[in-house]
C-alpha cells in the first residue's frame, strides 16, 4: 500500500498546485519541441519577468501554478507559454522498503548499511522539458522524511531535474546514467578506501552534469565542463540563494561550500 504519512498529506495540500487538463490546442503547439522557459535569478519577481518577456503576470502565474502572492525562487524554471505537456499536477510522495535486489546488495561487498535500513523515496519532480514524473531515490531510513521535504521544496520552486530513477520510464532518451539525481550507492570516495556517504545512504547528488565536482583540474562528470561558470543561471544549476536551500533548510550540508574541492551536486548529513 502506498500510504502517505499524515504530516506529508498536510504538506501536499499546502502546496496547492493548479491542476488543469491541457486544452487540445495547447497540446499541439510547436512549443512541444522547445518549450520556452526562463531560469529565475536572485531578485527577480513575477512582475519583472513578465515585463521582460512582454507577457501578462496572470498568465505567467497560471502556466507555472504559482499562487499569489508567492514569488519565484532563484534556480526555479518558469514556463513562458502554456506548457505543451499540460500544467503541473500536485506533488506526491511515498516511502517504500527496499529488497536486497533493488540495491544490488551482496554480502561479500561488506557495504556498511543493510538493505533493511534503506528506503526508496518516491517524489514528483519536473524534468528539463517542464514535464512532471514520479522519480525514486534510495536513502537511509533516518533521512527519508527530510528527503521528501527537500524534493517538495524543489518542486515548489519549479526547479528542474534532468532525470531520476526509473530512467527507462522517466527519461528513456538519456543513456548516460551519470546524469541521474540519486542517493544511495555502495562505493568508496574516489581514490581512497573510505566509504562514501552515499554508501551509508546519507548523501544525495542533484543534477551532476549541471553541478559538477571540481578538484583542481579534475571535473566529474566530464560533461560538467560546460557548467564551471557558477555565476550563470542555467536549467538544473543549484546556487546558495536558490535550490541549495531546499536541502540546507532540512539539515543537509552542501558540498559547494567546501574549500578543498567543490562538489555542487552533493548534499550530506555530516558535511562529508
Ligand atoms: Zn555525492
What's this entry about, in short?
With 272 residues, the protein is an alpha+beta fold. The protein is 19% helix and 17% strand.
Helical amount among residues, as a percent range?
10-25%
Number of strands: 11
Strand order, sheet with most strands: 3-4-5
Largest sheet: 3 strands, antiparallel
Q: Give me the Rg, rounded.
A: 19 Å
Bound molecules: zinc ion
Distance between the termini: 35 Å
Structural class: alpha+beta
Q: How many domains is the backbone divided into?
A: 2
Which sequence of SSEs, written as H and E, runs from N to C?
HHEHHEEEEHHEEEHEEE
The portion of residues forming beta strands comes to 15-25%
General shape: globular
* Uncertain runs: 1-32
Total count of helical runs of at least 4 residues: 7
Mean pLDDT: 89
What can you tell me about this protein's structure?
By secondary structure, the chain is α+β, with helices and mostly antiparallel strands. The chain has two domains: 37-79, Membrane-bound Lytic Murein Transglycosylase D, Chain A (Roll); 93-268, no CATH class. It has helices at residues 6-15, 24-27, 46-53, 57-64, 144-157, 167-170, 244-248, and strands spanning 37-39, 77-79, 93-97, 118-126, 132-140, 203-205, 213-215, 218-220, 253-254, 262-263, 266-268. The strands form four sheets. Strands 3-4-5 form a three-stranded antiparallel sheet, with helices on one face. Strands 6-11-9 form a three-stranded antiparallel sheet. Strands 8-7-10 form a three-stranded antiparallel sheet, with no helix packed on it. The site of zinc ion (ZN) has 4 residues, from strand 6.
Amino acid at each position: 500500500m502506498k500510504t502517505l504519512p499524515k504530516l506529508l498529506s498536510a504538506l501536499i495540500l499546502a502546496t496547492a498546485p493548479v491542476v488543469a487538463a491541457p486544452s487540445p490546442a495547447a497540446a499541439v503547439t510547436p512549443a512541444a519541441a522547445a518549450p520556452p522557459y526562463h531560469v529565475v535569478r536572485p531578485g527577480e519577481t513575477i512582475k519583472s519577468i513578465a515585463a521582460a518577456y512582454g507577457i501578462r503576470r496572470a498568465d505567467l502565474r497560471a502556466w507555472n501554478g504559482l499562487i499569489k502572492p508567492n514569488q519565484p525562487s532563484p534556480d526555479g524554471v518558469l514556463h513562458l507559454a502554456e506548457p505543451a505537456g499540460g500544467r503541473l499536477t500536485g506533488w506526491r510522495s511515498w516511502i517504500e522498503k527496499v529488497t536486497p535486489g533493488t540495491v544490488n546488495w551482496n554480502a561479500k561487498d561488506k557495504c556498511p548499511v543493510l538493505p533493511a535500513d534503506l528506503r526508496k523515496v518516491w517524489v514528483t519532480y519536473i524534468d528539463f522539458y517542464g514535464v512532471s514524473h514520479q522519480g525514486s531515490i534510495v536513502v537511509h531510513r533516518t533521512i527519508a522524511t527530510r528527503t521528501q521535504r527537500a524534493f517538495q521544496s524543489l518542486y515548489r520552486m519549479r526547479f528542474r531535474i534532468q532525470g531520476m530513477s526509473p530512467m527507462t520510464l522517466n527519461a528513456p532518451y538519456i543513456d548516460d546514467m551519470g546524469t541521474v539525481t540519486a542517493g544511495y550507492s555502495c562505493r568508496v570516495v574516489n581514490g581512497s578506501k573510505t566509504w562514501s556517504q552515499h554508501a551509508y545512504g546519507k548523501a544525495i547528488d542533484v543534477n551532476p552534469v549541471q553541478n559538477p565536482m571540481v578538484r583542481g583540474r579534475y571535473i566529474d562528470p566530464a560533461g560538467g565542463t560546460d557548467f564551471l561558470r557558477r555565476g550563470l543561471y542555467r536549467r538544473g544549476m543549484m546556487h546558495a540563494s536558490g535550490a541549495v536551500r531546499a536541502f540546507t533548510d532540512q539539515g543537509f550540508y552542501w558540498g559547494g561550500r567546501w574549500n578543498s574541492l567543490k562538489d555542487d551536486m552533493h548534499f550530506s548529513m555530516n558535511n562529508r
